[in-house]
Design brief:
CATH superfamily of the largest domain in chain A: ANL, N-terminal domain
Largest interface: A-B, 71 and 71 residues
CATH architecture of the largest domain in chain A: 3-Layer(aba) Sandwich
Largest sheet of chain A: 9 strands, mixed
Structural class of chain A: alpha/beta
CATH topology of the largest domain in chain A: Rossmann fold
Shape of chain A: globular
Radius of gyration of chain A: 24 Å
Oligomer: homodimer
CATH class of the largest domain in chain A: Alpha Beta
């Protein structure tokens, strides 16, 4: 009998279609054509217009030669063009590579080369960096399309041959976009700032994007027609897949070029925002706004944060201001969030301190993720559920990346033993909630951005007066963490804090530069290994 | 470059897992162990207990020899055993075949044979039918497990060697259930009452069950921890996949053995039910309850109905009583609902009559369905979107069945041209909403059950006094439709309405028997074809 359920019951076009988030936009355009899809300054695009503009972009890209597996890179702020790229690029078979606009020209140039970028859409705000990057690329010579935001005066200059609106103007609003041939096909490429060596290109596929898009709607309990404010950069893990989520339920995107307190509060009140995401720095921005900028909210706003556990005082202040904060966790390799601090209503009765302790835990898997555990990487067995034994956080499931582009060694290492190794260390509590304890890869997360301590150390070592350097995270109320540098000066040499700062700014993106510099002898083990845990204690007291 | 995104980026255990709704229950048991999963009379099962009981069932079935592709049939009411079967059976690789408890012994016997049932779980309420069916099977000799409901006195007798609770008592609560090897594997089997010949066995797979389970949560805007009342029989398309949906969001199942007004109102008020589904007859039951049974509700209850468009008066009365009614449409072949009357808030401003007209339309595709159209089956081109041109409603996507079991000819016919042919006739409105106009397969839907007019006619023709017979749907406020029989009596013979009724009860399940019998000459075309549309007009006036 086993065979009976497997014969003459094959896949065909009627009962099998590749999973892709592109179908969500087509549906919302059909069902909610007049509903506002995008708000940007004074601009409003309905779902009918959003879909038409995405198809025009796809059509224009196809005319420019973009086809299956070609990379389109985007150096864009949270603007309509960025949302349109999330649909228009894959609609013609292209792969969307969103660039972190805070990175320096050298890293951007590396990405353009590695991704073999065919078309680059770039916002004129970032023209200085991009102009330099284009002189640094070794092989990539992309067609450059400038996005000249009609709503904001951003300075900068136009670099390419054509402006975005002109580029899509001739596109076909009825472009017959194609479903991916296979749901395993790549939809996007996100470079993760590696701790050593070059950034790695994390490849997402249509299947995972579809599943997390729906998973977000379910995890965030989003009803039909939510209003979502773009405080999270879309270049981070494709905005945690929310550009696709909103099309599942006909939501409204409220774009936000700059994450500024007055603009956030204005949007919250005027557009009746229901949901927003962001690193802890966004909460600080909201809370520290001048009183004149703040507005009374007539509804609870859902705020999803990641990167660092929300501290008790911040949670209390956010609640006071009208927000419900949910703590998420994930990595670029898991399409953004894959773990949620799924809140148990019984915990509401706990004293504030214990509530914050519960809230600080990273939590449990999304329903869209099949496996999450804390595992001893040596034996590949789960650690005891005691909240104390440290192991490595590992993931298994359909919202784990396809792999690293052109880097089979890194992919094989990441997927060893049939689990994705996050590199994050944590514990498993008796109730099945995980909590991070340390990061094994020396990552400092500042304002939601990953900073490699090793990269900063490498830059410090380039200075002739530096004999030894070590960089660790210093806890920071506003930024979550900031890099703190400890330096041993070469005997006979002289070095000032200002000199170190200037040297770093010449060699690193601004956000990676140490906020504090301490000249001291570095504590070492008997074998000469720097004891970073001691430095972290010292940094906390600086 | 196209190749770069396709090489060294293969599926592995870390980044690919079969989609299956079984993972949802595992998650809810881990995250909400103490939350109430099932309410049944005075019984309460937490998610931890629900999961443990499902695993015990899986373990017991495995010990009884059930493995990949073996059929377990269930003749069950909406009880905990039925919910457990939705997980326990596929957890050991089995395929769940839910039997329509309203069918007669002959049809049940056919299903047991055709499905090659290895194990039958049967509620003692239905022992008379099942006992007879077991004498009628030609090849199936299943192990029979009786479900003897501890909460309700249902009469009947025990037929098998073991009672359900005893059967699972020795099962392993930690049974290491297996993920399906492939998400395309069968998870369940639902027999559809065919219009001619034998019932067809509709096969569902894990992938589709996963996607519609999530799709329901999204379409129904279900927040975390909804409370769902089981007014819809779970033997209908696996309860439209809601047995799996609730595990996505940690919902509470409120079981309901009998769809009676007092029990419904009591559950609505006492358990604060948020969602329920049912045919129009359920709305009639709710509304026509004695005033003493009705309760004031302190929240709006979401009611999802299908099978027939809700009439204006019913909508108004439901609204008055505290319900928001959403109209769905689908077929057994589409896992239940795949189309939703997605409500546009602007329509709220329309006069009641126009609102009801809008509400009567079947609507648009679920986000989980990739294609829905009204198509000319001859040319396979979509009909004009004019709300007038009639075509056949066709589906395309991942929530369309795997096919008909052991019936490749029927599968091929249903999937002709890469679309699933519903057999339902409808129109496409200019705004993209479909509306059914007639059913091409002579189905009468009474109280949510499909009745084949041809089957009833066949039964009538067996009576020696019947010369010609035709059965059509007669609109009915309570049942939606009822079968109305038109009979030409053989010259010289005599026949009374009572004789016809008695004859039908001997040959048909009770719910299929005509409610009205009219002796008349049948209107025919010049070629002798009976003009059913004229009979429908006549039936409406009976």
């Amino acid at each position: 009998m086993a065979r009976a359920y497997e014969v003459d019951l094959d896949k065909n076009a009627a009962n099998y279609q590749p999973l892709t988030p592109l179908t969500f936009l087509a549906r919302s355009a059909a069902v909610y054509p007049e509903h506002t899809a995008i708000i940007h300054g004074g601009l409003r695009y309905s779902y009918k217009e959003f879909y038409a503009r995405a198809r025009k972009l796809a059509s224009a890209l196809a005319a420019a030669g973009i086809a299956h597996g070609d990379t389109v890179s985007a150096m864009l702020a949270n603007t309509p063009a960025m949302l349109e790229a999330h649909y228009g690029v894959p609609m013609c078979g292209g792969v969307l590579n969103t660039l972190n606009t805070r990175l320096d020209a050298q890293v951007i140039a590396f990405s353009l080369d590695h991704a073999e970028t065919k078309v680059l859409i770039t916002d004129r705000e970032f023209s200085a960096t991009v102009k330099e990057a284009l002189t640094l690329t070794k092989s990539a010579k992309p067609l450059v399309i400038d996005y000249d935001d009609p709503q904001f005066d951003v300075g900068g200059e136009l670099l390419g041959d054509m402006e975005y609106e002109a580029f899509i103007a001739d596109g076909d609003a009825d472009f017959a976009w194609q479903m991916p041939e296979d749901e395993w096909r790549a939809i996007s490429l996100n470079y993760t700032s590696g701790t050593t060596g070059n950034p790695k290109g994390v490849v997402y596929h249509h299947r995972g994007a579809y599943l997390l898009a729906q998973g977000n709607a379910i995890t965030a309990s989003m009803q039909k027609h939510p209003v979502y404010l773009w405080t999270l950069p879309m270049f981070h893990c494709n905005g945690w897949c929310f550009p696709w989520t909103l099309s599942v339920i006909g939501g409204t995107h409220v774009c936000l070029r700059w994450v500024r307190a007055d603009a956030i509060w204005q949007a919250l009140a005027e557009h009746r925002v229901t949901h927003l995401c962001g690193a802890p720095i966004v909460m600080a921005t909201i809370l520290n706004a001048p009183d004149d900028d703040k507005r009374a909210l007539d509804h609870v706003v859902e705020f999803f944060t990641a990167a660092a556990p929300p501290p008790e005082a911040v949670l209390a202040a956010m609640s006071e201001a009208g927000f419900n904060v949910t703590h998420l966790y994930g990595l670029t390799e898991t399409y953004g969030p894959a773990v949620v601090n799924d809140w148990n209503a019984a915990w509401d009765a706990l004293p504030p301190g214990e509530r914050a302790t519960k809230k600080a835990r990273q939590g449990v898997r999304y329903a869209a993720l099949e496996g999450l555990d804390v595992i001893d990487p040596e034996t590949m067995t789960p650690v005891p559920r005691d909240g104390e034994t440290i192991g490595e956080v590992m993931f298994q499931g359909n919202i784990v990346m396809k792999g690293y582009l052109k880097n089979p060694a890194a992919s094989a290492e990441a997927f060893g033993g049939g689990w994705f190794h996050s590199g994050d260390l944590g514990v498993m509590h008796p109730d099945g909630y995980i909590q991070l304890k340390d990061r094994s890869k020396d990552i400092i997360i500042s304002g939601g951005e990953n900073i490699s301590s090793i990269e900063v150390e490498d830059a410090l070592y380039k200075h002739p007066a530096v004999q030894a350097a070590a960089v660790v995270a210093k806890p920071d109320d506003r930024w979550g963490e900031t890099p703190c540098a400890f330096i041993e000066v070469r005997p006979g040499a002289e070095l000032s804090v200002d000199e170190v700062m200037a040297h770093c700014r010449d060699n690193l993106a601004r956000f990676k530069c140490p906020r504090h510099v301490v000249f001291a002898e570095l504590p070492k083990t008997s074998t000469g290994k720097i004891q970073k845990f001691k430095l972290r204690e010292m940094a906390a007291d600086v």
